[in-house]
Amino acid sequence: MEQPLTDSAKQIKIQMEALLRLQALDNEINARRKKVGGMEAELRQAESVLASRRKAMDGQKQELDHLIKDRREAERAAKERQEELSKFNSQLFEVKTNEAYNALQSEIRQKKQELSLFEERILEMMVSEDEMHAALDQTAAGLREEEGRLADLQNNHRQAISAIDREIENLQAQWQTVARDVQADYLDRYRRLREAKGGIAMAKIDNGICSGCRLTIRPQAIIELKKYRTFLFCENCARILYVD
Asked: What is the pLDDT of residues 151-166, one digit of tens each?
């Protein structure tokens, strides 16, 4: 038959149960914060992808602008060659010697070759422009779809995060209520351990082993803990030990 707990043991039991409740609340708070962190990371990733696609689209626009500029310069050069050809052709009827006529014909052939090259280049650039316009339209359409998906994701996640924030506030209020029943020195130690041990200040003894660091706990210490004769701290990880 189990002996009734002494007043001292009852107080330790109350403190232990309160600390376990704080740990349970902290676990719930941390789980929700982790979920919020995951959603925020997902949003940042989606925003980063969208920013990269916008940058790529800007690059396409710049490339197209350069091509248009080059085509216009080629068209101006072709126009100059055409004007020179017209001038040389009109001069054919004015030359007086065969030597001058042949020299002029040579100039005309040269300008025709140059004009032909410019016209070919202009045609190639016009084809490239059409292709780039089509690619840019496709990119713009994909970007609009991506912006729409991001807007939906932002709306959904912000609503979810807002709801989780309210849950966290409620859990924190419960935490403060429970914390009022914990002695100041125990509460201070719990907080310091929580910060130092990744949010886990309490460690269950499972089959004689600390669940926090896997250290074997002395059997006599476990007996003392089960009878609530004292608080027990792991000699290795310093966490507050408890048993079911």
From this structure: 999 999 999 999 999 9
